[in-house]
Amino acid sequence: MAFLSESDVEAGLLDQLRGLGYSIAHDDDIGPDGKHPERESHQEVLLLLRLRAAVE
Length: 56
Prior knowledge:
Elements: H1 6-19, H2 27-30, H3 48-55
GO molecular function, one term: endonuclease activity
Keywords: Endonuclease, Hydrolase, Nuclease
Protein name: Type I restriction endonuclease
């Protein structure tokens, strides 16, 4: 049986999500300490600006 690391599983899932049209954002970019923060803390699960834009 082949061993799959967490990063192998994550990479496969992210590829599937991209294939479904999702965009992938990394914490380095949108996290609280990122270049373009979209939330004040990791306790904020929803990215409200993105949600509002998607609903409009």
